[in-house]
Amino acid sequence: MKYLAAYLLLVQGGNASPSAADIKSVIESVGVEAEESRINELLSSLEGKGSLEEIIAEGQQKFASVPAGGAAVSGGAASGAAAGGEEAAEEEKEEEKEESDDDMGFGLFD
């Protein structure tokens, strides 16, 4: 991740095509040892992909197809509550009674 961050910093700074030496100098400027193999791996993965804006746009399209986990769960719970209506309300009342401190015979601060 640090190598990609250094690459992005260099591109934002005006260097349209950062070299391995450029990335290494940014990494080492903050006191971190840079691995040449990781830098070369990053550069080879970005080679021939077009501009940085195109790569980011392609990645955004991929993320758009990823389902959001929370939306499906909450939607299902809402539809279940609407369908169950009265039964759900009765179950909630029963749960409240079961969780009551009175049923145990003592309270938290007794």
TrEMBL record:
- Subunit composition and interactions: Component of the large ribosomal subunit (LSU). Mature yeast ribosomes consist of a small (40S) and a large (60S) subunit. The 40S small subunit contains 1 molecule of ribosomal RNA (18S rRNA) and 33 different proteins (encoded by 57 genes). The large 60S subunit contains 3 rRNA molecules (25S, 5.8S and 5S rRNA) and 46 different proteins (encoded by 81 genes). The 5 acidic ribosomal P-proteins form the stalk structure of the 60S subunit. They are organized as a pentameric complex in which uL10/P0 interacts with 2 heterodimers, P1A-P2B and P1B-P2A.
Compositional bias segments (type: Acidic residues): 87-104
Report the source organism: Torulaspora delbrueckii (Yeast)
Name of the protein this chain belongs to? 60S acidic ribosomal protein P2
Q: Tell me if Disulfide bond is a UniProt keyword of this record.
A: no
- Please tell me whether the keyword Metal-binding is annotated for this protein: no
A Gene Ontology BP annotation from the UniProt entry: cytoplasmic translational elongation
- What is one cellular component GO term in this UniProt entry? cytosolic large ribosomal subunit
Organism domain of life: Eukaryota
**Stored InterPro entries:** P1/P2_N_sf, Ribosomal_P1/P2, Ribosomal_P2
User: Which UniProt keywords are present, listed alphabetically?
Assistant: Ribonucleoprotein, Ribosomal protein, Signal
